[in-house]
Design brief:
The chain contains twelve helices and 15 strands. The chain has 475 residues and is an alpha/beta fold. Strands 1, 2, 4, 5, 6, 7, 8, 9 and 10 form a nine-stranded mixed sheet that branches.
């Protein structure tokens, strides 16, 4: 028998239990630039998210869920491939920043996903699932001959509504009509992008109600430009006048309106599943691609999008599957974006594809029992690029987190249980732990073939953050 035949025949007992007689549908909701403190169920008081909060009450809320990178494109690729961005060599947002005079040179990294990989939607598509992609894609090379070969429809999605090379809305109206996005009609003057994409989601659910489906809704919101419907902006402008901001939350009325529009979208999707009689056999997962892009969006976690600390990489994660996931449950076990691929396969009763999702592990044991533990002990990050932070690598092992900055070899060590806000660097106090974690981090980088930075011959120590040579002013 061939290896492929054996793989196709092999189903674990756990898969059989979870899938039972009917494979579930999947609704995956991915929010752009989502801060760890943006929802009421994660502590927000200024922002109002009743539908998302109810989703958490009806399912499981994770307190240690991570994106695979602090910026969008690598995190999104990791979800779809089940692989670390370092292994993919897709390690920055497409097309990344330019720092020609920085101390280190950025490696020749990839700006697309290889077609030889079997992505999560392709695996489900092969198993008979109808697949739809809505919203932000940002996984396409720009200006290359094979540009059109990297749309969502070339990577396992039957339908693409809104996905193109953009990392944010760039149509004539940005978040308001006209949108300038494939598969999405411009509607009427004043129509809001989140609402229009949700309309498309409603149409897909109605059309595929008698089939198994994957609805992959990748919201453009809450990425800038920060815009919201007039009535929502005005609502939060009034609320801000008397709000007691004891938690030092972000009180931008337009951003609050964007979050409420997101919440309304989630509410519409949940209601549609109920109306169609699909809710009981539909898995809903809601998470984000990286931390919030603005201050005070992380419930006190240090820093935000683009930084090496927790505020840039820890994400809300909520999962609901009636009758399978206990209502109102919580899980503190660390999980990461690559885990969705093997988890969805197991939920669908499909065999694991370990040669594909090499770095993800199924979190089904956690969904069954929030106090369970995974066999995996360590998580890793690799960012050989310049952003708000300098290039770095990081490892989380249990409650310990080590950050290594590549320019000068600076090290930061935190005990996340005792110090979740990363206020005290323990590197000089616990040198043995530092040595152990650094050795593990370097070994991991070698094992995945991580691209490393090299000394930059054009380095100018007096340049403006590596962007311009000393003495030259920006025009």
């Amino acid at each position: 028998m061939t290896k492929l035949f054996l793989l196709g025949c092999y189903l674990t007992l756990s898969c059989l239990i979870w899938a039972e007689e009917k494979k579930p549908n999947f609704v995956f909701l991915l929010v752009d630039d989502l801060g760890w403190g943006d929802f009421g169920c994660y502590g927000a008081e200024f922002y109002e998210t009743p539908h998302i909060d109810k989703l958490a009450k009806d399912g499981m809320l994770f307190t240690n869920a991570y994106s695979a990178c602090t910026v969008c494109s690598p995190s999104r690729a990791a979800i779809l491939t089940g692989r670390y961005p370092a292994r993919l060599h897709l390690t920055d947002w497409i097309t990344g920043h330019r720092r020609p005079f920085a101390k280190l040179a950025v490696p020749d990294w990839k700006m697309k996903m290889d077609h030889e990989r079997v992505l999560l939607p392709e695996a489900l598509q092969d198993a008979g699932y109808a697949t739809a992609f809505l919203g932000k894609w940002h996984l396409m090379p720009i200006g290359e001959p094979d540009f059109k070969e990297h749309f969502p429809t070339s990577h396992g999605f039957d339908v693409n509504v809104g996905g193109r090379e953009w990392g944010q809305p760039k149509g004539p109206g940005k978040y308001f009509s006209p949108f300038g996005m494939p598969g999405l009609d411009d509607g009427e003057n004043g129509d809001f992008l989140t609402d229009k994409l949700t309309d498309a989601a409603m149409d897909f659910l109605e059309e595929k109600k008698d089939e198994r489906f994957l609805l992959y809704f990748s919201y453009y919101t809450v990425h800038g430009p920060i815009m919201s419907p007039k009535e929502l902006t005005e609502k939060y402008q009034e609320k801000a006048k008397t709000f007691d901001n004891r938690r030092n939350e972000n009180m931008n009325p337009k951003r609050a309106g964007m979050i409420e529009a997101l919440d309304q979208s989630v509410g519409r999707i949940v209601a549609k599943l109920d109306d169609l009689g699909l809710a009981e056999n539909t898995v809903i997962v809601l998470t984000g691609d990286n931390g919030g892009d603005y201050d005070n969006t992380t419930s006190g976690l240090r820093d935000r999008k683009g930084y090496s600390h927790e505020g840039g990489v820890r994400e809300p994660l909520i999962a609901k599957w009636p009758g399978k996931i206990k209502r109102g449950s919580r899980c503190e076990e660390p999980v990461i974006g690559m885990d969705f691929y093997p988890t969805f396969l197991e939920m669908a009763g499909l065999p694991a594809m370990k040669d594909e999702h090499l770095d993800g592990v199924s979190i089904c044991p956690l969904l069954k029992d929030g106090s369970a533990k995974l066999k995996r002990e360590k998580l890793y990050w690799h960012y050989p690029h310049y952003h708000r932070t300098k290039p770095y690598g990081a490892i989380r092992d249990g409650d310990w987190k080590l950050i290594e900055f590549f320019e000068n070899g600076d090290l930061e060590l935190f005990d996340l249980k005792a110090d979740p806000f990363e206020e005290k660097n323990l590197a000089s106090e616990v040198p043995k732990k530092v040595a152990t974690l650094l050795k593990d981090l370097k070994a991991w980088r070698q094992s995945v073939g991580a691209q490393m930075m090299t000394p930059n011959p054009a380095y100018d120590p007096n340049s403006a953050g590596g962007r311009r040579k000393a003495g030259k002013k920006k025009k």
